[in-house]
Structure formats: C-alpha cells, structure tokens
C-alpha cells in the first residue's frame, strides 16, 4: 500500500469502528499531516481517496465530513424474481460472444472476471514455475496421478481449514479449473432430464454446464444481501422433483453477497429431508473482505452431501487452470467423470502452486488482494453513484471483484454493451446470468484493477450512455 | 544414434531393401569393421543389436546370417471377435486400478503408454517454458481464448498438412489433452442411449468416455494389420442404429496397425450413406515409422464428417495436457462441450509448444523418437519371442511404442499382472481394452525406453511367469 492509501485506510477503519460518526468533521489536512507524519500533499491524496471511496465528503471552505457509508444497502437491487418453474437454459450464443469478444488492450474490459495479474505478490509463483521448468525432471512432464499431486492436495486440505472444513487430502480431486469441478460434479449426481435448483442470477459457466448435460434449471429467487431465498427453495422442493442444488453462497458471482451462517445451516437442514446433494461453488470464498473468511456450507455437512468446487482462478491466475473438488460421498462418481473428460490435470502448475502455498506466498498474496479489492469496491461504488442516473441500484459485495448494477427496466444491457464497445468499454450483460433471459436491465462490472483515471472514465462512459438511452426513450 | 547403432541400422536397411536375402551370410565382423571404419568391438556390438532386433542370427563358428524378418506377421494375433451387439461398457474399477497403481521408480512399468521424457530433443521445450514463466506477462497467466492460442492453432494447421489435411487455424480447437477432444466430440454428436461403433481392442480412455456419456458401444472385429473390418462394420450399420464411429486408424493403440489408405477411403464411402460422424483418434499418427506419415481419414473427408482428435501427449509430454480437435461441421457443438467442461485450456504451455514447433524443435524431436521407437520395437519383439512360450502371438506395430501380446486362452492377464507386480513389473491387462471383458488372455506392453538390461529382465520376468502359469495348469 502506498503511504496515502495507508493513511486513508486508517481513517476509514476508524469510521467503520464508529470513532467518527456520520456527519462529524474529520481532522484537517494539516492535522492529518502532523499526526501521521506525512506531507500535506499525501494527506490531500488520502482525503481524495476517502472521497472516492465514499467515506468522506468535502464541504467548501469547511473541510471533510463523514458521510453515511451504510447507504449502499439502501440502493441494493431487489430480491430477484425468476420464473418459478424448471426451464431449459438458453443464451449460449450470447455467452460465446462475450467469451470471444476481442480483447485488444485498448478496450477497458469491465465485462470479464479476471484477478489482478500484475500484483507483485504473484511473482514468486512464476519464479517457482520457471525453476521447475528449468530443472524439469521427467516426472514434471508425465501424467500426474488421477486425483492430483499429493503435495497440492495436502496444501488445499490445509487452506480449507480456514473455511471450517477438516478434510483428508484424499477427499480432494484436482481439476482443470473450477469449471471442471462443477461440470464433473453435476454429471456425477444427475441424469439428463433432471431438475437442478440454482441461485439467480448465477454464473453463466455453471448454467451452460446444466444446459450441456441436458438438465433443466429452476432459478430460485435470491436476495442481494443474504442469497438464495430459503422459503422459495422450500416451496420449489415440495413442488418439483429437484435432484441437486447448485449455488455460490460466499462472495457470490455476480451479486457479491455472502449467505449468513444461519442460512447456510438452514439450507443443509432443509435439504437433508430430501437427501439432496449440494454443489457449493466457493471460487471467491478466500477473497472475502472479512478475515477470517466465512465458513463454507460444506464445513457444516456431516453427511457428505456437499460437493465443494473451487479453483485458483480468482485468487491466483486463471490461465493455470488448476481447481479442485471435494465431492464428499460422491467421490468415486466424480473421479470417473473427471477421468473421462480430461484424464489427469496438468502436472507442473500443481507442484508450483503447492510450493507457493507451502512457502507462505498464497497467504501473503491473498491478504494483499483482499485489501486491494475491498478498497476498489468502495471507489467503484462511488463512481457508479456519481456517473449513473438516479435510481440505479448497486450491489454491496462482501468479497471478490465484481459489482452488479440494476438499471431502470427499459434499458437493455445487451444494446448498452454494443454501444459502449464502440467507445472501447465492455460490460457483462445481465441476461447471461439467467437461463431464461432475465436481468436484461442489469450488468456486471469488475473492479479488479487498482482505481485509475482510465477506469473512472470507463464508468463515466457507461453511465453517460445509460443516461442517453433513458433520454432517448422519453 | 551411437556408432554401433548406425552400423546396425545401415545393415538392417540393406536387409529391408533385400540387398541381403533371408538365410544369406552377412559380412564378417572384421570386414564390417573395415568397410565402416569402426573398431572390432563396435562391429561386434552392431551384430549383437541386429540379433536383438531379430535381423540376424549367429551360427557358431560360421558367422551371422539374415533371418526371416517377415516372420512377425506370421505370429500375429487373430482377427478380434468381440460380441456383435451393443453393450454397456464395464471395467471402470479395473481402469482405475491401473491408473492408480503405485508408480514408485523401482517398478518397471510396461503397463503405461508414456513417451520417452528424458530425450535431449525435448530440452528446448522446457527451456522455452522456463523463459516464458520467468518473464511471465499477465497474458500468460490469464484465460486463453476459448478456441486456444492463435499461434498454436496456426502451427497445428501446418503440422496437419503432413497427414494430408488442409485446415484453417479456426477449424481447430485446443483441448486439455486428446481425452477432452474425444470426450467433447462424443458428447457433441450423440445423445445418451445412442450406439457408437468402435474398433476392438480399443483405448480404455475412450471406452470409459462412452460409458460415462450413457452410450452403448458395438465392438467391431478388427484385424491386427489392417484395422477395423469394413465388412463387419457394414453389417453392423445395417443392423443397428449406429450414431457415430470412433477409431484409431493410424498407429493404433493397442494393436499398432495402420489402416491401409484404401480402407480409410472405403470407410468414408461406407459411412457416407448414413451421413455418419467419425471420431478419428490420431494421437500416435506422427509417430509412424514410415516417413512421410500416413494420411488421416480426415484428409479424404469432403463433408466435414470427421472429428479428428489428437494431442502432444505421445509426441512431446502428456503432463502438459495440450491436445486439439478439428471437428469439421460439428465445430460449434464441440466448442460448447469444451467450454462447459474446462472453459479454456491452460495458457502458457500452448504458447511454449507453438514456439517449439516454430523453431523446428518438434520436427527434430519427432524424427529422433520415430527412429528410437522403431528400433525398440524390433528389440522388444525379439525379447518376447525369446522369453515367452511358443505359440505367443505378437503384434507388429507400424508406429508408436506399444506392443499387443496374445497368450494361450487359459491365461488370465489380470492374474498375471498381480503376480508380475510382486516382482516389480506391471503390464496392462487386455480386458481393459474391451467394454465386455474380452481379451483376458492378452496384454499391452510399452517399449518407450531405450533397450536396457533392466527392461530385458522385465520381459523375461513376465515370460517366465506365463510359462509357470501354463505349467501349473497342466
Ligand atoms: C462462480 C464461478 N464459478 C466457476 C468459475 C470458473 O472458474 P475456472 O476458471 O476456475 O474454471 C468462475 C469463473 O468465472 C466463476 O465466477
Ligand atoms: C489412443 C489414445 N487416445 C487418447 C489418449 C489420451 O490422450 P491424452 O493424454 O492426450 O488425453 C491416449 C492416451 O493414452 C491414447 O492412447
């Protein structure tokens, strides 16, 4: 963290802990410079950041005042209301378009969910990989065992203690990213034609897996702060022969919420009556802004019913394609499905990541990234509030690096994206996150990068375009 | 090649070209040493190798004579006779056992099909990977495009010209090994319950994919020299609603044959009546001992009906998990299936391999490996003939590094493997290569390594055990 960021952070912490109350005047730039032993210009930069993050506002000729930080939840999107019956997933063409969109560097990609890959704390990992390659023994070039490298499974079992799970390394299978974990899990526990309940909006990759496996999805109403509605789920379970649940309960993509612990436990209870398997996507779990990170549903599972899926794609780097699944009682079925689709997972990155974790590099990196994304979230929310029309609803992510924005009903974000792309900014249209084309007035934006003028301008571009579309409608 | 190997090679070539006829006396050690300007001991070593490879035999006090090299085909296994109706694949437990078998270095693994990973011609590839990692840009850590790296698809399109294919890079999708290519292809063109015709014996990985996708297989009788019986296939097509064919026509695993070009063409004709898609597994194609390599079925396909699947697992290194599929007219369906199971393929190895090919490293390596495996084949066949009971039938591979051995009907190679494992030698039991537990008296052995005393002893161990089992039966 730069000096001004440290100063800003310490003030923000005090506000959060209520040492400074809403409306209260904050220390002057001069006194801040004195107490923190920094230059005037550093103190000024700290206040600019606090403003950007929405902690403080400057009142001309008077100074800086605490503003109501808790306002974000007042502008939250509504509880989602998807169609309450099983549907066949569509939208593959649209997903393909998003995935195949040109990625030249002059486009500000607010659309994709890729972590910060320039972080200095990631360097030791690439160094380890380079060294492993240089002295490449035959074993690094050969097939790794089907379950995955012993060393990596051991380290993952240790990491998962943070989420409350006590697993043996043999409870874990290494996969080609979280996508393979999800896909192998789905296929292990369902037959074509089965119905799967999902949170909604939901990550398009898992929705497309449901489609490809010939399954139907029932999208359950989901609250932007607490996640899947347990009441709605209970009703759906009574009404339909649901065979599995798939959800992302911690640092959800795209909504950013973390289900409260009580909800996680109740979900387990509720589904135990049906002995229902739960696919828990935990890919963003370690990027929770709260430390220690929230427990997973799996950590409360005593029946082996939860298949926990995750990867290093959001915490380290997606190009490595290393994920894992802890499939509980379904381990043999998942192993078969994993074998037939990719045989073993690539060898060298498994050993490199295991070494990186063992050296403490993972923890160091995650700590940095959590703080960075936390900070970027607040800046990002500030920008959206500033540049988007009044009435825009914004999620309040508890981890990760994506924001969900809900616009007035008349706006179609597919069209919006086409237009912003002409100005070199891409967004992820909301309809990708529904199997039935809902959320056409929503979008997902990422705030991976450290705040920059370029990104602020990108948000401004999108905001202005939304305003223009609204005006055109009048 | 060592000096004595060069000398032996030149003699072998002359025998092959009929300059020396069966039964004819070969030059004396002394004259060999003179004409090739090598030491007496080098000439002696050359003859020892020719003996091992089955080109020559020494007659006491007389010298070396050409022996009937064409005898191998006389001892070929019979045309396979699998059950002529669709079956559900079993044998997953057995495959899992093979794959999860202990791989400590004191075991001679004749069971697995892993290329020589110690070859010096592979070093430039690991160097490129090390360098790419050292200067890792963010792009190397990020998701590669869904289709795969442009540079690699271009190089593969160029390589495939050798097999007679003229493809555009966009006709190719990069996959996580050949396994994903096969699996995504199968799922793209079939529905659960469908029947797929396969050659038999057949690679267990593709058989298990058929099982996992809820398909039935009909195993077509297959000739050890010419491959799948077109007559039997024609009958099966008339009798059953077959939805796809899957086969490995070039340097087949496990039988080693290459289908004659005429058969490849007739297969296309035959299936065009039914507009039937063909999954062509070409993973060993570039390891053909004949140069230029034989054309693929795909090279004759004008209708986009052939889905060609391959990878660098046998030519370079399986731990990289980089393969590809050229799915013809099914490209969009295959892309969807690929996306839902693994999203994109790992980034860095794609760029490394592309660079390796561009620098000429691939061609150099393949040329070396072809020669090495060709030589090892002949040594290996010599050993099996020497150490196995009379009546043993042996395949005569045209490429790659696996041998198929058929024993007397009473021998169960699963039991054989249990016993040889106690002496630290593993073999691949034949029943793995059938969906219905056929070939229980067969086994697959690899001859990847350069011939060594250790490997000769391993073959001797297996041969002795077979003899013992036969004696015990009496
Ligand atoms: C919620 C969620 N699950 C799974 C994935 C896929 O992860 P991976 O790249 O590790 O396959 C993503 C990636 O975007 C995601 O956001
Ligand atoms: C005929 C055949 N096809 C496919 C495969 C799987 O290849 P990969 O390791 O590239 O997935 C193998 C590997 O043993 C094979 O022998």
Word description of this protein:
- The structure is a homodimer of 474-residue chains.
- With 474 residues, chain A is α/β, with parallel strands linked by helices.
- Chain A folds into three domains: 3-66, Orthogonal Bundle (Arc Repressor Mutant, subunit A), CATH 1.10.10; 92-119 and 363-473, Aspartate Aminotransferase, domain 1, CATH 3.90.1150; 136-361, Type I PLP-dependent aspartate aminotransferase-like (Major domain) (Aspartate Aminotransferase, domain 2).
- Chain A contains 16 helices and 17 strands.
- In chain A, the strands form five sheets. The first copy, chain A, has a seven-stranded mixed β-sheet, with helices on both faces. In chain A, strands 13-14-17-16 form a four-stranded antiparallel β-sheet, with helices on one face.
- In chain A, strand 7 and strand 8 (227-228) form a beta hairpin.
- In chain A, helix 8 crosses helix 12 (331-342).
- The interface between A and B is large, with 63 and 63 residues.
- One pyridoxal-5'-phosphate is lined by residues 113, 177-179, 203, 205, 248, 253, 281, 283, 311, 313, 318, 323 of chain B.
- Chains A, B: Residues 1-69 form the HTH gntR-type domain.
User: What structural category characterises the helix and strand content of chain A?
Assistant: alpha/beta
Provide the β-strand percentage band of chain A: 5-15%
- Greatest interface by residues involved: A-B, 63 and 63 residues
Number of domains of chain A: 3
CATH architecture of the largest domain in chain A: 3-Layer(aba) Sandwich
According to CATH, what is the class of the largest domain in chain A? Alpha Beta
How large, in whole angstroms, is the Cα Rg of chain A? Answer: 23 Å
Global shape of chain A: globular
Helix segment count of chain A? 16
GO molecular function, one term (chains A, B): transaminase activity
Pfam families (chains A, B): Aminotran_1_2 (PF00155), GntR (PF00392)
Keywords (chains A, B): Aminotransferase, DNA-binding, Pyridoxal phosphate, Transcription, Transcription regulation, Transferase
Family (chains A, B): In the C-terminal section; belongs to the class-I pyridoxal-phosphate-dependent aminotransferase family.
């Amino acid at each position: 963290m730069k000096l001004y960021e440290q100063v800003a952070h310490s003030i923000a912490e005090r506000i959060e802990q209520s040492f400074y109350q809403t409306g209260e005047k904050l220390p002057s730039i001069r006194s801040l410079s004195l107490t923190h032993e920094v230059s005037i210009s550093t103190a000024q930069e700290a206040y600019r950041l606090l403003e950007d993050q929405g902690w403080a506002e400057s009142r001309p000729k008077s100074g800086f005042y605490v503003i109501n930080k808790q306002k974000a939840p007042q502008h939250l999107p509504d509880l989602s209301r998807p169609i309450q019956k099983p549907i066949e997933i569509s939208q593959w063409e649209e997903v393909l378009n998003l995935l195949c969109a040109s990625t030249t560097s002059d486009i500000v990609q607010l659309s994709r969910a890729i972590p910060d890959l320039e972080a200095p704390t990631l360097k030791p990992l690439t160094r380890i990989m380079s060294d492993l390659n240089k002295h490449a023994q035959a074993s690094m070039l050969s097939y790794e065992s089907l379950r995955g490298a012993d060393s990596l499974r051991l380290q993952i079992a240790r990491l998962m203690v943070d989420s409350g799970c006590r697993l043996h390394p043999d409870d874990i299978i290494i996969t080609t990213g979280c996508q393979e974990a999800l896909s192998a899990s789905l296929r292990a526990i369902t037959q074509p034609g089965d119905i799967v309940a999902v949170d909604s909006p939901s990550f398009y990759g898992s929705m497309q897996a449901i489609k490809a496996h010939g399954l139907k999805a029932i999208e359950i109403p989901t609250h932007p702060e607490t996640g899947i509605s347990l009441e709605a789920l209970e009703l759906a379970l009574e009404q339909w022969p649901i065979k599995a649940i798939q959800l992302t309960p911690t640092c959800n993509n795209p909504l950013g919420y973390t289900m409260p612990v009580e909800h996680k436990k109740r979900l387990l209870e509720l589904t135990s009556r049906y002995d229902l398997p739960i696919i828990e996507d935990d890919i963003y779990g370690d990027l929770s802004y709260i430390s220690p990170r929230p427990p997973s549903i799996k950590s409360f599972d005593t029946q082996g019913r939860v298949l926990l899926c995750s990867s290093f794609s959001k915490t380290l780097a997606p190009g490595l394609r290393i994920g894992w699944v802890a499939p509980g009682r379904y381990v043999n079925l998942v192993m078969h499905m994993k074998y037939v689709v990719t045989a073993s997972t690539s060898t060298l990155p498994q050993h490199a990541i295991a070494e990186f974790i063992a050296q403490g590099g993972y923890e160091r990196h995650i700590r940095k990234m959590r703080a960075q994304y936390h900070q970027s979230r607040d800046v990002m929310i500030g920008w959206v509030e500033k540049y988007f029309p009044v009435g825009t609803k914004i999620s309040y992510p508890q981890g990760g690096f994506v924001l969900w924005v809900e616009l007035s009903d008349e706006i179609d974000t597919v069209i919006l994206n086409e237009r912003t792309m002409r100005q070199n900014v891409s967004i992820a249209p909301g309809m990708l996150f529904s199997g039935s084309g809902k959320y056409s007035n929503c979008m997902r934006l990422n705030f991976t990068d450290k705040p920059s003028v370029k990104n602020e301008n990108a948000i401004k571009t999108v905001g202005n375009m939304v305003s223009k579309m609204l005006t055109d409608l009048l």
